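From the pipeline queue, job 12 of 40. The input is one protein chain; the requested action is below.

Action: predict structure.
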Amino acid sequence: MHGGEKRYELNLLGLPCPYPEVLTIHKTRELLSKDILEIILNSPPSVGIIRDISAKNQFSVLSTEEIGKNVWKIVIEKL
């Protein structure tokens, strides 16, 4: 991280689809260029949907990893 970029975490554990998508969209509206958002969730359908939404809305998906049993971390960056 350099310059004015910031890193944020959005913990969405326990929330079923479509809540992770909706809350992610709301959070991304606050981000500036080069800001990083780490999304933690355990809703399998939401993982792919969030990745697709991010790629279509000026975000780069930096990584997606399963960090626990049915728990994922998606890291996106605002372009």
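Job complete. The CA atoms of residues 9 and 38 lie 5 Å apart.
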